Amino acid sequence: MPPSSLDTAQADGRAGLAPAAVRGRAAVCRAVAARYAGASRWAQGYVRGKLRSDPATAALLALGAARPFGRVLDLGCGRGQLGLALLEAGCATALLGLDRDRAKLEEARAAASGLPAGFVEGDLLDPGVAFPEADTVLLIDVLYQLPAAAQRALLPRAAAAARRRVVIRVFDPGRGWRSTFGLAVEQLGRVFRGETGRTAIAPLPLGVLAGALREAGFARVAIAPCWGATPLPNVLLHAEREGA
């Protein structure tokens, strides 16, 4: 992946979008959902649902409205709706998404028309895939899906690409009944998707993740619930470098 990809995305897109605080989250979500009109009906429903009800959408838009993210690298971006929401809200100046699912990336590219965004196919776990520098790196619902060793290998690479901030949504294994319920939901999801052969879900403790980020040079690491009205154990880690 060329390191100039974020520069190219910014040059190709538009600027001057109103911040989320002015436009309102509902308006931003409607605008992004409309961009997927050419996708399959299932994909349209998925995107609308994630934008409207996923607590990560509200959390990221609030963080970005308080202090914009600048150039964003979204690792494991899927269909790209979260990053596009940040652009539509004026919370980011450019977006580069990386994912290994070609079909989802095609939908993301079509939806991003006119925005300073690019999407690249690649395997996050391949050490030969370079992560270009960005002001902010996102890892949303990615780490806990991986084997423990892969989580430990990926996090330092992601952190090294972030000039200012890293935002990660993870599964907290220490939330009691929430964690028990969340594990059951994830296992059932794998059964329905025919993924029973995958390595068992083994989310790393939050202390391990926060420690790795501090070792990577992030002076401030905040942890906050990100489960909304759901019974899931999802939390948001927001790490910042000194002076960021």
TrEMBL record:
Which ranges does the record mark as transmembrane?
A: none
- Where would I find the Methyltransferase domain in this sequence? 72-161
- Pfam families registered for this protein in UniProt: Methyltransf_25
Out of the domains of life, which is the source?
Answer: Bacteria
Q: What is this protein called?
A: Methyltransferase domain-containing protein
